[in-house]
Sequence to fold (154 residues):
Amino acid sequence: MKHDKYYFMRLAIREAQKALLIDEVPIGCVIVKDGKVIARGHNKRETNQEVIGHAEIEAIRKANKKLKSWRLVNCDIYITLEPCIMCMGAIIHSRINNVYYGAKDYKGGAVESSINVLEAKNINHHPNVEGGILEDECSLIISNYFKEKRIKKM
Fold:
C-alpha cells in the first residue's frame, strides 16, 4: 500500500484523539522518513506543565532520539494544526524537508494565518509547506474540544 499525505494526516489525527483522552488541546503530529512513521506526538502542555509540550516538539524529540541526530533531513512532518512560531523554529532548525498541516491557526499559525516565519530571508532552511490536508476533520476535532470546554463552564 502506498502511503500518502492523507494516510499520514489520519495518523496525526489519531494522535490528536490521544490528546483528547487526557484533556489536552487535541493536536497531533507524526514524523515520517522513507515512507515510515519514526515518531508520534500529541499535546502534553497541561499534563507536563511545560510551555514547550506541543505535539511537534514531542514528536521531534522522539525522532531525534530514534535517528540519534538533531538533524531530521529527509523527514516530513504531519500536524493537525498549523505550527506556531516555536514549533516552526524547531522544524526549521531540525532541517525537516516537508511540513503538512490540516487546519489553519488564525491566532498563532506561523506559516500562513498569523505570520509567515519563512519570509525571513536569512534563515538557513526553508521547508516546503502544504496546508489544508484533511482540514475539515482537523478543524472539527479542535473546535468541538473548545465548544465542550465552553459548555462545561456554563
User: Anything to note?
Assistant: Strands lie at 28-33, 36-42, 75-81, 98-103, 128-130.
